[in-house]
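Thread title: Can someone regenerate the structure for this chain?

I was given the following input by a collaborator and told the matching structure tokens would be attached. They weren't. Posting the sequence so someone can regenerate them.
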Amino acid sequence: MNIAEYRNQVSEQLRIQDIMRLMPKGESVLDIGARDGYFSVRLLERFKLVTALDVDLPSMKDDRIVCVKGDVTDLTFPSNTFDVVFCAEVLEHIPCKMLGKACAELARVAKSYVLIGVPFKQDIRVCRSTCSNCRKVNPPWGHVNSFDESRLKELFIGNLVETVSFVEENHSYTNFISSYLMDLAGNPYGTYSQEEPCIYCGSKLGNTPSMNLFHKICARTAVYLIQVQSHFTPIGSISFSGK
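Best answer:
Regenerated them for you:
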């Protein structure tokens, strides 16, 4: 799925609307993980100065946007540089040992607000993929972290939470046995269309693995157990935004 198709999904449009509803106004904003620049352009509606940062230098046609190559765990800006720091679809990708540093950097360079967007209570065992190169199991979409309110508050300890918002409902949960069986089956229902490469060897994930009889039995048993579990699993939220 390319970025344009992703942006046009109903769930993504709802998330975008919620983020823009929460977005405060100010003079300057830092867009962390700018990617295609979609939000950077939208932020021009509310800010005079927009800085777009990503691990690869973003490319924007609008000269009102300052593009910067950088790392969220080691920002080069002075403290209190931006009225607002916006960070969505980023923290779930940060290696756990660096996550605290990244959150501290976001808070450090923000003068007034940090607006965070993350998948909420995502079960990252669901839709895992098996790398065809190194054979290691990858979390969906490269998400190595899962968040709830308490974890986010711990990561941003000392900062006041002003607003929390949830978008849609999440029914995607699994269990230890089902995830183990899916691993044995080669994770045939994983996110093989994702842009993110294997988090272990860097190879592109692709091509759903072929399944023999053993793999099919493991996968079907796993699906059956998940269906049984669904009758007893609470509904969560797909996306969380807070500032």
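The longest strand covers residues 110-119.
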